[in-house]
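Format is sequence with structure; example below:
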Amino acid sequence: MLNSVDMNTVLDLAAAGAREKLAAYLLAELEKLARAGADFGVIAANTPHLVFDEVQRQSPIPLISIVEATCAAAQSLGLKRVGLFGTRFTMQAPFYSEVFSRAGVGIMLPKEIEQEYIHHKYLTELVRGDIQPETREQLVNLVAGLKERLQIQGLVLGGTELSLIFTEPEVCGIPVLDTTRIHVAAIVERLQS
């Protein structure tokens, strides 16, 4: 069962810092899935994980976290330092760093100005399916900079549309952790259990 939530509502609530409203919005959508008979649920995006813990505590069905699944993938590769790209909300919130630090994996962030660039390109190009070669080149350059400056060993695509740019399993000689693919694999594994 699919329940497609309104991305603009999620982004507007995130931008306003309206965590309680965002959690209530997502919880209401999960309750619809529970009423329809879902055994478990997923929030198939990264930014809404700003309130994942609050939603999970109140959800009528168990949830599979995109962040926890990605952390498990990083651990399985033996990574200790990974870069994180995504919306500004995802990069600046602690939900990735908290989960990963419990597993002994450090989250390394681009500089603030680089985060703004990633956020802007994400919302103005990628969510529209607009893939610009110069954006790809600049994002790859940012990965190279993180690898050199912070010794990252992998890159977390903390935005599901980033896989439109990073289509290969590696970039700059390090693995790409495509959160969409990782989350889907966790969902399939749960369905098979």
Summary: Residues 7-64 form a domain with the Rossmann fold fold (CATH 3.40.50.1860). The chain has a mean pLDDT of 97. The chain has two domains: 7-64, 66-178. Residues 133-150 form the longest helix (18 residues).
